[in-house]
Every structure is written in C-alpha cells, then in structure tokens.
Amino acid sequence: MRIGILGLGRIGAFHAETLSGLDAVDSLVVTDPFADAAKAAAERFGADVVDSPEALLAAGVDGIVVAAATDAHPALILAGVEAGVPVFCEKPVARTMAEGVEVLKAVRGRDVPIQIGYNRRFDAGFVNARAAVLSGELGPLHTVRSTTLDPAPPPAAYIAASGGIFRDCSVHDFDIIRWVTGREVTEVYAVGGNRGADFIKEAGDADTTGAILTLDDGTLAVVSNSRHNARGYDVRMEIHGFTDSIAVGLEDKLPLRSVEPGVTFPAGTPHDFFMDRFTDAYRAELTAFTEVVAGTRPSPCTIEDALEAGWIADACTLSLREHRPVTIEEVRQA
C-alpha cells in the first residue's frame, strides 16, 4: 500500500522510518511546509515529495499519517475523511476539546476509519496487563498506579503551546488506565507544583503533578507525572487486585535504582527518551494502522477514545486550578 505522511518533524520522520520498514507498505508520499524536511525524507526513504496536503491526497494514497502541528490536525483529519482515505493522527485530535468535539461531529456516520496515536496500547507490557485484567486473574481491582516522568522539560515554546501537563503528558496515563482496566473515570482530584524550570511556571503550568482518579467501579487510580527525572524516561503501571498484583515497566532499563543491600535490579542502561522506550510499540501501532487501511480490523483507538482521555485532562486542569474534586460530567461537552 501507499501511505502519505503530513508533517516531518521529530515524530513524522520517526513514523516515516517505521513505515518504510513495514512489509505492507510499498511506497511513501510526504509533505511538509519546510521543504528541507521533505527532501531529507525523500532521500532517506525513497519517498515521493509533494508540496501540499491536497497534492498528497491526490497522489493515490491508501492511508495518511498526520504528524503535523496540533493546530493542523482537525483540517487534515477532515480532508482525509472527505477524500475517503483512512487517517492515522497523532494525539491530540485538536488543540481544544471544543474543536475536538466539532471534528467528531463532522466525521460521525462517515465510513472512513480514523485512528488516534496512543502508542501505549501497543506496548507488550500494557497489552499483557489488559489481558490479565480482562481475564479476571487479578480479581476485582482496588488500586492502579500510573507514572510518566520525563528526563527533562521540553523547550519553552513547546510548553507554551502544549495545553498544559495534563493534556500533553498525563493524558497518556489517562488513556492507558481506561484501556487496561476497561473502566471509565468519574471524578478526579489533582495537585501540582513547580520545582524546576521557571518558564513552565511563567506559562501558567505545573512541572510536577499528582492526580487521584475514581473509576466507575470504585477503583482508585493514582497518576504521577513530572518534567524532571534526571535518571531517565520512566513509564510504569501497577495494577492491584484482590487476587493478584502486576506491574508494567519493571525491567532492566527502568530508570530507578535500588538501595536495598545485595539487589542488582535494574541492571541495564536506563531509558532516556520516549522513542527508545516505545520503539516496538510505535511499530506495532503503525502495523495496526496498515490493517485498518486494509479493512481487516477496526480502529484500535478512535476519536471518541481520545476525547475521553481529554475530558479527564480538562477535569484535572480545573481541579488543580480550583483545588477541589471535579467530575468528568462537569467538564464534558455534548
């Protein structure tokens, strides 16, 4: 199949490399406002270069991957749907939830699949955790702990346009909690602080946060996030049931060291970048998209899924600002 890529920044170039190595993909068509980025992709991956999204959609593509700036996501999703071409779009659907809802309304009822990029759903550990929960082997759940700690803050310009730590970082935890447990979040309580980069505080954002999510069966989920984890990129989950407990991310590249006498775990070089931690997951995610394009599976992460994680992020943002519990229904837009 022939896949188009719109946007060739860090993640777009990474997707181009991944797609070029998939057996199902015969050729790539790429476009980017920066001609040098498109030219580099063409030279590296043998991709065809076009000068606009319209030209890309007219180039005989079977599916498109949207890796452009967030502001462009709604228009590019809708352009793909109008052309009848399956769409993979990196999260978020749009910069604001109101815009995301409008995208959902515009595509509802259209027979064109859309997959939103939440790569943790394709990580082997999280896949195994979901299977363990759904099989019932853990018994009823009572506690989930989910962690995302970045090794260092992103640039100031990124922070200013990110929508805040809950929408940019924690949202991955929110999505994977829903997916692994199969439950919905009903209420949140969030706290946060600034312990490092002044530009994050100046942008009105927190650099370290904690949130307690109440799920619809009474399970409590504790989410911990920070922009400052000098030892590396730390993504983990613990799931505790009345019968058994399991963990995701407890492996030798875990960026944590034990001070227990005689303990040598973890023994590997710590993960220091999200692309390192989730290389295999990204490949599995885009392999899944080729199956969506081929019509052999439904979208594994829909716009509706992405918006649910977004409502949780908005509820946490409001909770942090007003220092109170917030229900999801309070922030949800029809």
Automatic annotation (TrEMBL):
Residues 127-243 form the GFO/IDH/MocA-like oxidoreductase domain. Residues 1-118 form the Gfo/Idh/MocA-like oxidoreductase N-terminal domain. Keywords: Oxidoreductase. InterPro entries: Gfo/Idh/MocA-like_OxRdtase_N, GFO_IDH_MocA-like_dom, NAD(P)-bd_dom_sf. GO terms for molecular function: nucleotide binding; oxidoreductase activity. Transmembrane segments: none annotated. Belongs to the Gfo/Idh/MocA family. PANTHER family: BINDING ROSSMANN FOLD OXIDOREDUCTASE, PUTATIVE (AFU_ORTHOLOGUE AFUA_2G10240)-RELATED (PTHR42840:SF3), NAD(P)-BINDING ROSSMANN-FOLD SUPERFAMILY PROTEIN-RELATED (PTHR42840). This is Dehydrogenase.
